[in-house]
């Protein structure tokens, strides 16, 4: 089983990204997927967690993801020991940051950084970083294809925002692919 933990703030769309990934792998790749949020105080800007599990067989575990293969951080200010806790040795940390990946390295996992906020502002005109971070994760991990992610966007997001989200997904994907 592959497990992903998403760290974001209310309003950034961490759960939407978790859900888009789960939908993409279940519909396109024939895998079982589970995506769910964990909220503290439900308000915009409060820290939130979301989780995605991907498996070749049915998933019965409904608990939070403690040990994970990937950690995605939608807001760099959330980064700290609690964020990387449980990230498996050899796993991948994807951080929305202007900083170089080396500033987050040294813990036994690979680090990828991308300025998803800038991409979001440029294309979406809003600092909603979920879809570019999904694109970065896909480029770093190969968990599913761009086509699967596009189909997931088409079926899960409102028609008014689909094309811009596919554009920001591709731009983030290409940016990370150039680095890895």
Explain what this protein looks like in three dimensions.
This protein is of the alpha/beta class and 180 residues long. The protein has a single domain (2-179), classed as Pyruvate-ferredoxin Oxidoreductase, domain 3 (3-Layer(aba) Sandwich). Helices cover 39% and strands 26% of the residues. The protein contains 6 helices and 6 strands. It has helices spanning 14-28, 81-84, 116-123, 130-141, 146-156, 159-179, and strands spanning 2-9, 32-39, 47-55, 68-73, 87-96, 110-114. Strands 2-3-1-4-5-6 form a 6-stranded mixed sheet, covered by helices on one side. Helix 3 (116-123) runs antiparallel to helix 6 (159-179), helix 4 crosses helix 6 and helix 5 runs antiparallel to helix 6. It is globular, with a radius of gyration of 15 Å. It starts with a strand and ends with a helix. 47% of the residues are buried. The mean pLDDT is 94. This is 2-oxoacid:acceptor oxidoreductase family protein. Residues 10-174 form the Pyruvate/ketoisovalerate oxidoreductase catalytic domain. Keywords: Oxidoreductase. It comes from Clostridium aromativorans.
CATH class: Alpha Beta
Distance between the termini: 24 Å
Largest β sheet strand count, sense and barrel closure: 6 strands, mixed
Q: What's the average pLDDT?
A: 94
pLDDT below 50 for ≥5 consecutive residues: which ranges? none
Q: Could you tell me the number of beta strands?
A: 6
The CATH superfamily appears as Pyruvate-ferredoxin oxidoreductase, PFOR, domain III
- Number of spatially distinct domains: 1
């Amino acid at each position: 089983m592959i497990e992903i933990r998403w760290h974001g703030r209310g309003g950034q769309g961490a759960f939407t990204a978790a859900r888009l990934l789960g939908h993409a792998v279940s519909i396109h790749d024939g895998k079982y997927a589970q995506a769910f949020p964990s909220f503290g105080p439900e308000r915009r800007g409060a820290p939130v967690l979301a989780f995605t599990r991907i498996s070749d067989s049915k998933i019965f575990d409904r608990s939070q993801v403690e040990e994970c293969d990937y950690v995605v951080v939608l807001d760099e200010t959330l980064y700290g020991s609690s964020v990387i806790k449980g990230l498996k040795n050899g796993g991948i940390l994807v951080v929305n940051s202007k900083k170089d990946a080396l500033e987050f390295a040294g813990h036994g996992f690979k680090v990828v950084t991308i300025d998803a906020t800038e991409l979001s502002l440029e294309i979406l005109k809003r600092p909603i970083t979920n879809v570019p971070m999904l694109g970065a994760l896909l480029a770093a991990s190969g968990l599913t294809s761009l086509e699967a992610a596009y189909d997931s966007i088409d079926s899960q997001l409102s028609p008014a925002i689909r094309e811009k989200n596919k554009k920001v997904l591709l731009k983030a994907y290409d940016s990370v692919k150039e680095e890895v």
